[in-house]
UniProtKB/TrEMBL annotation:
Organism for this UniProt entry: Merluccius polli (Benguela hake)
Gene3D superfamilies: 1.25.50.20, 2.60.40.1910, Neutral Protease Domain 2, tricorn interacting facor f3 domain
Record-given protein name: Endoplasmic reticulum aminopeptidase 1
Organism phylogeny: Eukaryota, Metazoa, Chordata, Craniata, Vertebrata
Residues that bind Zn(2+): 519, 523, 542
Membrane topology (UniProt): Single-pass type II membrane protein
Amino acid sequence: MRPRTRVTSNMTDVPLLGSIAPWTQLSLWFPSPYLVEKEPLSTPEGGMYQEWGYVSLASDMRPSLMSNGSVYTRTPATPIPASVDENLMETMGRPLSGSCQFFSMYWTVASSPAVVAMWGTLTLPTPSSPEKPLDLLVVHLSQEILNDALVQVPGHILHPARHRAALVYAIMTQQDAHAVPLLILLVLEACAPSLGAQLPGRDGTKTPHVAAHDQHFPWDRMRLPQTVVPLHYNLTIHPNLNTLHFTGVVHIELEVVEDTTTIILHSSELLISNVLLLVPGGPPRPLRFLEHPASEQLALLSDQVLTKGGRYEVQLEFAANLSDSFHGFYKSSYRANSGEIRYVASTQFEATSARAAFPCFDEPAFKANFTIQIIREARHIAISNMPKISTVELAGGLLKDCFDTSVRMSTYLVAFIVSDFLSVSQTTQHGVKISVYASPEKIHQTTYALDAAVKLLDFYDDFFAIPYPLPKQDLVAIPDFQSGAMENWGLTTYREAGLLFQPKSSASDKLGITMVIAHELAHQWFGNLVTMEWWNDLWLNEGFAKFMEFVSVDVAYPELQVNDFFLDKCFNAMEVDSLSSSHPVSTPVETPTQIREMFDDVSYSKGACILNMLRDFLTPDAFKTGIIRYLRRYSYQNTVNSHLWQSLTNVCQSDEFEVGGVKQRDFCLEGKLQPGGSKWYTDDGLDIRAIMDTWTLQEGFPLVTVEVKGREVRLSQERYLKTDDPSLTEGFLWQIPLTYITSRSNAIQRFLLKTKTDVLYLDEEVEWLKFNVNMSGYYMVHYQQPGWSSLIRLLQSNHEALGSNDRGNLINNVFQLVSVGKVELDMALELSLYLSREMEILPVTQGLGELVPLYKLMEKRDMETLENQMKGYIVELLQTIINKQQWTDAGSVSERVLRSYLLLFACVRNHPPCVETASRLFNSWKDLDGNMSLPSDVSLAVFTIGAQTPEGWDFLYEKYGRSPDTSVKSRIKTALSISPLKDKLQLLLEESLRGDVLKTQDLPHVLISVSKNRHGYKLAWNFLRANWHALIKKFGEGSSSIARMVNGVTDQYSTVHMLKEVQEFFGSLTKETGSELRCIQQTYETIEENIRWVDKHLPLLQDWLDKHTSSGPKTQNTRHEDL
Ligand SMILES: [Zn+2]
């Protein structure tokens, strides 16, 4: 642990920087004199922000300089001497040339709590002129500069509303021309909330934008105007992996749509300079510009009108630090075998971070062509969306790689990486060169990904019948990566665990890697070729990509049995979609935070599930024909929902005779001849848009109640909502493509329920009916008695009469109906009894998914006896299948994934045979210093048993630090978090945030895993609260990482006290620190629901367990103490 010093202001109670560590590296922009030459300043305040450039300090700051500096003490109240301006101008008048842009330096806290002193060495690019010795430079930086993240203190936010950095003084005493010791005092004062720029509120009220220095910013909306559109970007960028900053210049060719004198585009945290308008045949004209940091916009102001239809080019220079987050142009690092830390500069632009790498029109509908040049050192390589066409040597030994011009695409898909990675390549049958890149140490783990990418890209090329338009596709394993992967066109990026595969990888790793590659490659069509118009329809990208994962892998890798894993997506989506805080698939969004919140289970999983429902309804061939038509019609364009529905309507009237291998004529004739099949093609009145609007434009999903009276089946629908306010379920109506089978026939029957209630008639009376066959539909079903009882009897007598998806679906529905009071808990538990004979992964994991949370809720209420009884019941219920598990890697992928899951469960629940074997294996593995080969699928259980003692935990932690194998590491990491040792859990959390041994990218996983541990849930909650601001800064407000942490840590809380604690913390946040996040509402609702559930059902559960656990209530002697 590094020493920490607490700093508080003596002016207010507000802590200025929270706790800060001396010798933290801090970056500060510094004004550059040489640009000022072009347009002298009238006052330091007036032009500084716009016109100042920057100089550089050398990167080798030495703490020893501390003793050389004399502290220039000054209180904020002291007025700036009149001579400052003169000094400033005098100093500024002397040009400094060179290409450096900013400095980094060490800093510490001066004795005054409101002053931060920083020092380092200023290296001037050229010697200053001897006749004018540089002895003092006083710099007065305005608040805007500091507020706009120009001061970046790792882990701290200088917040505009709470802190005002009033003055920065730099005192330089020249010793020689090149290296000048320098001291800066950053004087901070607490201030009242800023009255400056305000964004339009969610209520629609607007206040005028105010740009820096009180100049009026000429645009007051978050969305850009349509007056000019970009056609082509020529971008040159130079990331410096020594100083960890980058500089660049972009030329943007524009077409003017309406006469205008302003160009509004995006820029975030970039230092902009040298903005020019390039007019053909004329000299370049400098453009004035204004920035509006709150909306991340830049206004370029022209003195002359840019006329409609005209084409212009603007040039902007820019610079910034490589980001310390996971988005924009950010730095990643890895430790080479030699122990040396190596840096990688990589991009992650989706959704709104291209603007943090270069100024651009950063909305998906502003598609343009991109020509990119990257400057690098000879020891590095650069890659981008397109292939490299040439390399030019620059002065000073640097190299410039020039890449081919891209196809028309959105800014969020642009990507470039500078690294020392190696690659392996292969060519697809369609002639596309596929390469997989990884750090030199891990390049041998790329073979599986390369094969998978070749196979899957060929699959999509054939399936969509639209050739992949680029000559190459690179897949890159990035050491630090927030999400799973990113679909940048031609250059997909992945976290290492999502791409690297070794013999030691487990079955679920293989499945995961295949799926993630399938997802990103599907995006090359859905998302890249055809893009949603705006982020409100993100599901058109993500729902499709998620859906196509299953379609493609099912065909290309049938042995992976992906369909065993699809329903899980729908169950997850239904969980958030059953709360009143859910949102429609297509939801209006405006701010970057709101846009980030769209990357959730609703866009991905619900999107995929409703597409699956539509495909089942239309038939797979008709669906395929429709989506190919959609992709062809809208290639290189942007779409809204209705474009998709139109493309899927009247497929048989399509002009295309053969599409994607489907012969239209045969297929449509065939359809007409089969009256029992899907009826869409015979029914001209079928309005796909009307059906699908009910699924995409309203939130939630329906609960269909089925009541059978003889041959008559009465149907009704209502919204399934976990609430104690029934009025919230009113006003919802869906068009539901119902399917069912009966005890008499396995042939799937179909019925489109469009109204609140309806009736259908069976040919004959039946013993049972099962609706939502294979759970192809996104809805829940409640069977009025005796419906449930007949289904339970069926499961108990002959469960294989129903498919495994149907069994999993019934387990899910019956337990979920308990929550809304439609079914009593004992009926759900009664149904679960059949699980003692269940062998298939989906129903078993779904059963555990419903039963395990019950004791998790009790854990939080200190009801140990009942909790142990419940745990005992579940182990007993699944004993047959647990005892059947072999400690090997044999079997199909589903069997292997299930084995890993069951053995972990049994060992954690202290099931003696499991613990014995796992302990024996762990000891042997440890005795051989981890060099014994363990079957991958059982190693998680083995490591988890090992992590229960301090010695075992330390050994595993040490192995984690040294293991090169991503897959083994990820299992060790999970095992470490399941330990009962609280001090170790705390260490694990702290190390994850520190990001040295454990990467910070893994913090969300570690935190959630610790929170599921009965010994760790309080630590996790305290950790989340204590580090909230740092987490928001690192992962991004509104990101799915933040939402997962909030929900994951608190979603099993079940007491009023806990609810209050959660409300108190989130209630104390401001809008800027996340108070309006949707995940907070979700967690409130979930905890309220947990409290209701436990209060209502506990007595019944107790009675039921007393009757059904073999040892009975009094003789309970096995303690299911968690390990
Ligand atoms: Zn995606």
